[in-house]
C-alpha cells in the first residue's frame, strides 16, 4: 500500500499541470478535515497548504486538489480509470468582484474555478464562482455577476454557487 501511495505522489509531482504551491506537502485525504469552508491539517490543526490526493481502488477514482492557507488554489483533477474526467484551476477572484460580493453579502469569500469536463464529444469548459454567504441573490444580481465578471472567461457554461460554509446548503444558477 505504501508503494502505491508513493507511486501516486510521484505521478502527481510529475504531472505537467500541477500548480506551484508554497509548500511541497502532499497528504492523503484522511489527513485533512473540512470546516467552515477551510481545509485543515489534522496533525497541526492549522489551515493546510499543499496538495491533497485520494485514490479509491474499488471504483478507480483518483483526485488531486491544491490548497493555500486552507483554500482551494491552483490545479486540480479527477480521474476515473486513469483518464481525466474533470480538471481545472482555482484562481483568485477579481478584486472588483470581491468588492461587489462584500457590498452585497458582507462576505469577502469567493473562489473562481476555471475547469473542463470530459463529455462524449470532447471537453466542455466551465467557469464556476463559489461564494460563502448566507445571503441569496435575486435573479438580476446573478445575471449582473455573470455578465460583468464571469463572461470574460469564455466558458461554455458558467455557474454561480452560494453555500453556507459547510458545502451542504447550496443555491446555484447556471448560464449558457
Describe the protein in words.
The protein has 176 residues and is an alpha+beta fold. It folds into 2 domains: 1-87, no CATH class; 92-176. The chain has 3 helices and 12 strands; from the N terminus they run H-E-E-E-E-E-E-E-E-H-E-E-H-E-E. It has helices spanning 2-14, 95-105, 139-150, and strands at 26-28, 32-35, 38-41, 46-47, 50-56, 61-68, 71-80, 83-91, 110-119, 122-132, 157-163, 170-175. The chain has a 9-stranded mixed sheet with strand order 1-5-6-7-8-9-10-11-12, with helices on one face. Strands 2-3-4 form a 3-stranded antiparallel sheet, with no helix packed on it. Strand 6 (61-68) and strand 7 form a beta hairpin. The longest helix is centred in the first third of the chain and has 13 residues, at 2-14. The termini are far apart. Mean pLDDT is 80; it is low at 1-23.
Q: Tell me roughly what share of residues is in helical segments.
A: 10-25%
User: In whole angstroms, how far apart are the ends?
Assistant: 44 Å
Strand content: over 45%
* Major sheet: 9 strands, mixed
Shape: globular
- What is the CA-based Rg, rounded? 17 Å
How many structural domains? 2
The helix/strand order is HEEEEEEEEHEEHEE
What is the helix tally? Answer: 3
Q: Going across the biggest sheet, name each strand in turn.
A: 1-5-6-7-8-9-10-11-12
Q: How many strand units?
A: 12
Low-pLDDT windows of residues = 1-23
Helix-strand makeup class: alpha+beta
Kindly report the average pLDDT value: 80
